[in-house]
């Protein structure tokens, strides 16, 4: 039987409307006001939560993000103020890490930096679990949007651009191949329990989505599944709008230059690499107390539900909105380009020199163990079989 208030809300909706799409179920499970996973109870990110992010692993990630922002700031001709908007910021760890790095390493950037964060917990109208960075005020608009599965604290600073969704809710439709047809997964009730049922696609967009990216799903085995994130397209449209539209102020529209970047970090791939025959059950995953499960209908509101990003969709929609591709790479390669190994070497020489001079001493042994932890953190971020295979996408105006 249904046991929680959120389960009851979902059941009442099904009883009222009939079976709902998995995307609608996911939206309620994660974002239903007062009951959803991301909008109720304590923050569930980090070692004491259900999953961890790159900023939990080591400060080096924030330092590399600072390096990236510094490069973009220079490309934007050192605007002051340099306003950074990180959406889906959760606890604010990335923002704090970037500001601390900038203060110590690039004082000019720190002096110009106005780092703002937004999160669905702040009560703002929302549309994705990605993070975003940067928008510049008069006399011209400059922006950098950073999107990723990260977390932060809200800023009280007023936004100089038009009000709009702060976070994109990444809810996915699930489709399954049966014989020669594509069906959609819906959620319904049977004997008081939430369960799946297959039916026709809920929209033509869902039905044609895989064909848009030339995925040969007709040739795949029966039971093959995939996730379709239409919300990601909406998020790209809204993010591009922030970059392309002039900020509020008195400068005439035709005199304002438009410059900016949209930076996205998440797990996923381009469409042809994401939707493959071998990935038979798709990429949907649930996280509860650092345990990976494949039961999304279990404990709604108490576990995270996520799926990989179709980066081809983001790139194509960005181009339709007037953005251009700047960078598409892996997190491992991006971190290397941002100098993570050089910083690791500097830290080794600065903070752990005793390992070379007095390794056998108690202090040397303690330093050695601490150094192993530092080095392991960097290895985890860059591991091509793990977080290092996250994708980094930068679009520009």
Strand and helix map with partners:
Layout: H1 5-17, E1 20-21, H2 22-31, H3 54-57, H4 60-75, E2 82-87, H5 93-105, H6 107-112, E3 113-118, E4 141-148, E5 173-178, E6 181-190, E7 193-199, H7 204-212, E8 225-228, H8 231-244, E9 258-266, E10 268-269, H9 271-274, E11 285-288, E12 291-293, E13 304-306, E14 309-310, H10 311-320, E15 324-330, H11 331-337, H12 340-351, H13 354-357, H14 362-382, E16 391-396
Parallel strand pairs: 2-3, 2-4, 4-9, 10-14
Antiparallel strand pairs: 1-6, 5-6, 5-8, 6-7, 9-16, 11-12, 11-13, 15-16
Put the structure in a nutshell:
With about 400 residues, the protein is of the alpha/beta class. It is built from 14 helices and 16 strands. The chain is globular and about 70 Å long.
Strand proportion: 15-25%
| Dominant shape | globular
- Which strand order does the major sheet show? 3-2-4-9-16-15
In DSSP terms (H or I, runs of 4 or more residues), the helix count works out at 14
Structural class: alpha/beta
Share of residues in helices: 25-40%
Q: Topology as H/E string? A: HEHHHEHHEEEEEHEHEEHEEEEHEHHHHE
Number of strands: 16
Characterize the biggest β-sheet: 6 strands, mixed
Which spans of ≥5 residues are poorly predicted at pLDDT below 50? 122-143, 147-169, 248-255
Radius of gyration: 22 Å
Terminal CA distance: 52 Å
In round numbers, the mean pLDDT is 83
């Amino acid at each position: 039987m249904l046991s929680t208030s959120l389960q009851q809300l979902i059941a009442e909706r099904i009883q009222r409307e009939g079976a709902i799409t998995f995307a609608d179920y996911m939206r309620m499970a994660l974002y239903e006001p007062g009951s959803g996973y991301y909008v109720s109870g304590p923050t569930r990110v980090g070692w004491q939560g259900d999953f961890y992010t790159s900023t939990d692993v080591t400060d080096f990630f924030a330092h590399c993000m600072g390096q990236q922002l510094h490069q973009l700031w220079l490309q934007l001709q050192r605007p002051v103020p340099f306003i950074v908007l990180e959406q889906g910021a959760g606890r604010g760890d990335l923002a704090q890490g970037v500001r601390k790095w900038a203060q110590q390493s690039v004082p000019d950037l720190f002096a110009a930096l106005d780092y703002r964060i937004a999160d669905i917990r702040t009560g703002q109208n929302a549309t994705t679990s990605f993070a975003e960075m940067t928008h510049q005020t008069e006399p011209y608009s400059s922006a950098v949007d950073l999107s990723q599965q990260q977390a932060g604290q809200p800023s009280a600073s007023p936004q100089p651009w038009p009000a709009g969704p702060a976070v994109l809710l990444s809810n996915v439709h699930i489709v399954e191949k049966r014989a020669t047809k594509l069906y959609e997964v819906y959620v319904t009730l049977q004997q008081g329990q939430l369960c799946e049922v297959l039916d026709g696609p809920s929209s033509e967009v869902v039905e044609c989505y895989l064909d848009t990216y030339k995925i040969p799903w007709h040739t795949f085995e029966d039971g093959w599944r995939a996730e379709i994130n239409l919300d990601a397209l909406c998020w790209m449209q809204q993010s591009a709008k922030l970059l392309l539209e002039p900020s509020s102020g008195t400068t005439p529209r035709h005199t304002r230059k438009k410059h900016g970047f949209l930076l996205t970090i998440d797990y996923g791939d381009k469409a042809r690499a994401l939707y493959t025959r071998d990935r038979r059950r798709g990429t949907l995953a649930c996280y509860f107390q650092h345990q990976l499960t494949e039961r999304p209908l279990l404990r709604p509101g108490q576990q995270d539900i996520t799926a990989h990003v179709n980066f081809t969709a983001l790139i194509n929609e960005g181009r339709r909105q007037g953005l251009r591709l700047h960078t598409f790479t892996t997190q491992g390669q991006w971190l290397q380009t941002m100098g993570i190994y050089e910083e690791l070497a500097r830290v080794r020489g600065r903070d752990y020199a005793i390992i070379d001079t007095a390794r056998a001493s108690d202090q040397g042994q303690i330093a050695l163990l601490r150094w192993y932890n530092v080095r392991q953190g960097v290895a985890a971020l860059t591991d091509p079989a793990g977080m290092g295979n996250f994708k980094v996408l930068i679009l520009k105006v």
